[in-house]
């Protein structure tokens, strides 16, 4: 009985905190107090993370308002995203050109992320993605110097994706006059062209958001044009939310069709990995290079979703954490370097002499992205490739490994540039927010790489909860 | 039995932290002290094993990924014990005397320690995932050693090194994941895999063998995937070269020994592997003869030696295995000595070309004789360690391949002939005046002495090591 009350209270506390977060963003436009807004939003995000993790620990499965679902899956991601959002909030506080407008839009974006993560119906997914994407476009616009172009690109992309999604919704709605993820009852759908079309449209629309090839042509331009903190949020969180949406739509609503979409996902994963890695080889602008690198990482994450087993999903969840932790700090460092007019690979020459810690941070995080043990990226890739081999997809694992090999070249180029020698260098001071985020991220990447068992256990519970729904 | 491996790794890890914190010579001294302790522990371990006559039951420190049945566990075999002893001696001497220029002491000492940690962990790991992890840590440490401390053209060499080595490591990852998946109870445990490998189907075994064979072949390195080694050596610092040839190539050799003992299918590939190894030995000797850079010459001797070690491994006999291990011990110590001498020459003359360097003997007698004795030890003159290794390898090879097994011996003879020409031309020539620009310190002489002591010790008292193999 006491347990029940606790769960309900936690659940209300969660919704209350999320509501307060949005409200605080709106109010900040009136009082215009940067410090207060930063403190309030950080405290609320930490509170949400704590509440969600205690709900995760208590193994709750509740369906409030029939639009949301509190399960170990959603709570895992709510706590993860909240922690990552704290990091984004810290760098935005120092570097955002208009932190007050930023935080008003930030509140809406966060609300969108939470809605998708907790979705129990296709409408929640739809609205959540919309709510997340549009404020992001405005954030790019108010913050960036060359922001308008990027914002328009993102806006058009989001509109296309959402059009495909709503078309797919219209196609699956007639089956049971239901949009709840669990009650869609689409049957096996074999031979039904409408269902197949709907699957394809869902894939297209979510592939836009998750930046899978060939729907990722917007990514490099938008990432490069946006200010670093927004880029960090987009690649570290927005994209991960899209993966959560993919998991929810395909592994809850459309799970009878897994043999169909898993073939599609295998093709998407392979194409995305090759595209990201090969194009990254010839990039000169470091931010753009990491945009392509994060495309290829989306391909790796897709491997686990494509094998469509619990172990595969677990591996994907692990890799989502691994990539998000690394890429947010990487874009934070890049943001700080861009403020100092260091943009192209050539400008990175002798960075280790100018600021040793920045070079060290980037090196450790890039080694994690390559998958060098004992860092977290290695464990993630290892789980992904073994999950593919477990499902008798040896070629998929081999392609993944081959892609890791390709990626060595461009990461090594950056590392070598940073550690090359040059006379007469001027030292650089790192902003406090970037140092804080770097320290947190490097420690997390090292510790979770050395002791991955707890995160693997949590990912395993989350994936089991997803499949049990 | 004390958990020696755990203590060694802990000592090295703590020293690594200390060495990364301290500055300048303090950092180097801390690293020397730490690796000296590790070397003493290695010998204590050797003594304990010889005294008790058993390798112990292995050490399990912690669980790494319990969900996949992966533990941080270590075990000892005769091969791993010999290689641990070798690696700890070479790393100690590298720290003591390898940095001839005494520049960037903190970076170099920390990286050497990181590499030593990886090497000792790799040689003693009881499961393949741990083997892979230490492999990659070692490769990354050496990459930074080549790139951060190397000479002018290091950019190209470091990239080449990284690409070859990471290709090897990713093939290794693919191979061990396949092994893991195809064993009945999914496991990375080497002893378990060895015991059940015969139940895996022939075609799968063949595929796994092929993938892992290429990975280890790149690392050893043997023709046709040896191209990274000469470049890496030319550009690496003396310390980098000592560890690269002395210890890193043994990763591949040790892995190859594991592979041949693990998969029964290996017996089907004995002859092709032996032919490849023999060809590689002759090819490398011929390429070596047109080199002028002393370091490049020594680098090619590594390829010749590793090819001959592969002949011993491919013979799949007790003598061949013991011989390959012994030859790896010999080669690790010898090549470290030769690179130390070559690096000292490069420092003293600001030049390593055998056509222009002359009269080393007028300058430093110690370097000259260290190099000369290194050549004796490379070519397997009796009383040096390599002699025992070569004898055992060719006993094994003749047993397995008949009289053809002795053919690679001719490559060794050619190698010796050319090396004597080199030493005669540049080191011992007294006709021309010495053109040295600097002098080496006392620590280099100490390094020569330590390495020579062990080369002769294991050559004169081979039964110390052979007792481990039960020969």
Structure description:
The complex is a heterodimer of chains A (469) and B (471). Chain A has 469 residues and is an all-alpha fold. Chain A has one domain. Chain A contains 18 helices and no strands. In chain A, helix 12 packs antiparallel against helix 15. Chain B is mostly helical and 471 residues long. Chain B is globular and about 70 Å long. Chains A and B meet through helix 15, helix 16 and helix 18 of A and strand 1, helix 5 and helix 6 of B.
Features:
heterodimer; A: 18 helices; 78% helix; B: mainly alpha
Write the layout of secondary structure elements.
The complex is a heterodimer of chains A (469) and B (471).
Chain A: H1 2-31, H2 34-57, H3 72-95, H4 99-117, H5 122-143, H6 147-172, H7 193-210, H8 219-225, H9 228-253, H10 258-280, H11 286-307, H12 310-339, H13 351-354, H14 356-370, H15 376-390, H16 394-418, H17 432-450, H18 453-468
Helix pairs in contact in A: 1-2, 1-4, 2-3, 3-4, 3-9, 3-12, 3-17, 3-18, 4-5, 5-6, 5-9, 6-7, 6-8, 7-9, 7-10, 8-11, 9-11, 9-12, 10-11, 10-16, 11-12, 11-15, 11-16, 12-14, 12-15, 12-17, 12-18, 14-16, 14-17, 15-16, 15-17
Chain B: H1 4-21, H2 24-52, E1 59-65, E2 70-74, H3 78-98, H4 105-124, H5 128-149, H6 154-182, H7 190-196, H8 202-219, H9 228-235, H10 238-262, H11 270-288, H12 294-314, H13 318-349, H14 360-363, H15 365-379, H16 385-401, H17 408-427, H18 442-460, H19 463-469
Antiparallel strand pairs in B: 1-2
Helix pairs in contact in B: 1-2, 1-4, 2-3, 2-4, 3-4, 3-10, 3-13, 3-18, 4-5, 4-10, 5-6, 5-10, 6-8, 6-9, 8-10, 9-10, 9-12, 10-12, 10-13, 11-12, 11-17, 12-13, 12-16, 12-17, 13-15, 13-16, 13-18, 15-17, 15-18, 16-18
